[in-house]
């Protein structure tokens, strides 16, 4: 009896969280359910293992690139006379390691100061730059995975962004710190701080400054690194979640290190390295966790139940392709502004990676083209009167056959081939005479009655080609 009650309770909770009663909920109830969905999916993403695997990959890349990365920053900051601030920044990052963090920071700083770039030669300098840039590339790949971005940036765009982060980033950080210190030492400001209320306010702000700096850094990464248009508010939400989690994890890890004397007894001198790697892993995992928060905040259409990403059935792929082409062609024929990918996602209510699969297939056959606008707008690849419905359907049904198996590679009995031929003829008879211009003309009116062969054709169409979803 009790198991049945528990099962019923879980079913009711599942229905409340993932049910489709959104229209009957108040604004605050809808927002509360959205927060619960986001938390459940964040737990799923961490348990699934992809975030942890990418965090471990970033730890390995960091160990290889931390010295070249700091050496480049050291060279840039040396020209401005503030290179001595690298060790305090490292100490701040490694503060959760306690006394062991001071040892790691001192060792890294000494190694950087003893590095002589002049004796490396052209090849050594190129390897130094590549090792430093590889960390930026790994970060971008991980964030692109979270944002479901399959197309990386162009090589020129990557080069300019990475160099701006490596060269200009340290200057901006230390300039901001220097300006803050200068302002705090101005006599007028010091006089204002003598006022009790203002002094307490400044003390409160100074205690919150580490949180604000980390949140600002995380927000900058989420907006600048992924190959996607990340809005400020979702990036700020992710930055706040990641920054607070990072500071809290720092306190917890510091307490762990203070009570982990057995590690030194077991691993001896390697204990410092192991603790350093654990802290790096937690830091990267928190960064990726915050990126997931920002992603779900900007794309609530991904808040769905079930494991893994949604996959399109053959029927949904065909329906989505026709809906996309009808949307683009309808606006084009009416002389209106054609939609971008983001607008198509919003209007069709489909996740980005799902729609991107269909759009890529249509672009490969030149049925869709992208304009040079920013962001790019979609246009019909040719006169809509020359694009038939059957062309669109055949394009999405055969997408990927040039890279994988094609129907020619699959031996079939003559009777099977005959069935598919009859299906093709029935489809062509039913809708072969309908063009995209016809769809555009009828977008605000009901479709005319189909010929008698249409129902039979539609019954066998979904999944008729036997191909699995992409």
TrEMBL record:
Spell out where the chain crosses the membrane: 58-80, 117-136, 162-184, 204-225, 232-258, 264-297
Is the keyword Transmembrane helix in the record? yes
Report the Gene3D superfamilies cross-referenced here. Answer: Winged helix-like DNA-binding domain superfamily/Winged helix DNA-binding domain
Q: InterPro entries, alphabetically? A: Virul_fac_BrkB (IPR017039), WH-like_DNA-bd_sf (IPR036388)
Primary localization: membrane
Q: Where is this region: Disordered?
A: 445-470
Keyword check for Phosphoprotein: no
Q: How does it sit in the membrane?
A: Multi-pass membrane protein
Entry superkingdom: Bacteria
One GO CC term, this protein: plasma membrane
- State its location(s): Cell membrane
Q: What does the UniProt keyword field contain?
A: Cell membrane, Membrane, Transmembrane, Transmembrane helix
Give the protein's recorded name: Uncharacterized protein
Query: What is the protein's species of origin?
Result: Accumulibacter regalis
The organism that produces this protein has a lineage beginning with: Bacteria, Pseudomonadati, Pseudomonadota, Betaproteobacteria, Candidatus Accumulibacter
């Amino acid at each position: 009896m009790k198991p049945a009650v528990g099962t019923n309770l879980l079913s009711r909770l599942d229905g409340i969280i993932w049910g489709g009663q959104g229209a009957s909920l108040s604004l605050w109830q809808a927002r509360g359910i959205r927060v619960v969905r986001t938390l459940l999916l964040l737990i799923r993403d961490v348990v699934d293992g992809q975030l942890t695997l990418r965090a471990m990959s970033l730890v390995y890349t960091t160990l290889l690139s931390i010295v070249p990365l700091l050496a480049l920053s050291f060279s840039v900051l040396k020209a401005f006379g503030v290179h001595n601030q690298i060790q305090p920044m490292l100490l701040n990052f490694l503060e959760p390691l306690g006394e062991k963090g001071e040892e790691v920071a001192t060792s890294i700083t000494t190694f950087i100061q003893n590095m002589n770039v002049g004796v490396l030669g052209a090849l050594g300098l190129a390897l130094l730059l590549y090792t430093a840039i590889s960390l930026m590339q790994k970060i971008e790949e991980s964030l692109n995975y979270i944002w479901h971005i399959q197309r990386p940036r162009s090589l020129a765009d990557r080069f300019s962004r990475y160099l701006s982060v490596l060269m200009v980033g340290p200057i901006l950080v230390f300039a901001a710190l220097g300006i803050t210190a200068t302002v705090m030492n101005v006599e007028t400001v010091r006089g204002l701080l003598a006022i009790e209320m203002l002094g307490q306010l400044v003390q409160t702000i100074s205690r919150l400054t580490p949180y604000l700096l980390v949140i600002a850094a995380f927000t900058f990464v989420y907006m600048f690194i992924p190959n996607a248009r990340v809005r400020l508010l979702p990036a700020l939400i992710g930055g706040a979640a990641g920054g607070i989690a990072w500071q809290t994890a720092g306190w917890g890890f510091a307490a762990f290190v203070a009570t982990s004397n057995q590690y030194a007894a077991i691993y001896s001198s390697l204990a410092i390295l192991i603790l350093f790697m654990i802290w790096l892993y937690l830091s990267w995992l928190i960064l990726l966790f915050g990126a997931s928060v920002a992603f779900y905040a900007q794309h609530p259409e991904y808040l769905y139940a079930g494991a893994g990403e949604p996959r399109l059935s053959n029927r949904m792929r065909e329906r989505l392709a026709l809906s996309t082409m009808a949307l683009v062609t309808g606006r084009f024929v009416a002389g209106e502004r054609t939609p971008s990918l983001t607008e198509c996602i919003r209007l069709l209510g489909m996740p980005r990676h799902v729609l991107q699969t269909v759009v890529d297939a249509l672009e490969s056959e030149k049925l869709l083209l992208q304009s040079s606008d920013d962001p790019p707008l979609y246009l019909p690849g040719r006169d809509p009167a020359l694009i038939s419905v059957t062309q669109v359907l055949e394009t999405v049904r055969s997408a990927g056959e040039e890279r994988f198996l094609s129907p020619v590679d699959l031996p079939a009995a003559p009777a099977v081939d005959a069935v598919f031929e009859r299906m093709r003829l029935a489809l062509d008879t039913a809708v072969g005479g309908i063009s995209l211009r016809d769809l555009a003309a009828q977008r605000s009116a009901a479709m005319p009655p189909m010929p008698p062969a249409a129902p039979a054709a539609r019954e066998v169409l979904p999944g008729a080609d036997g191909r699995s979803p992409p």
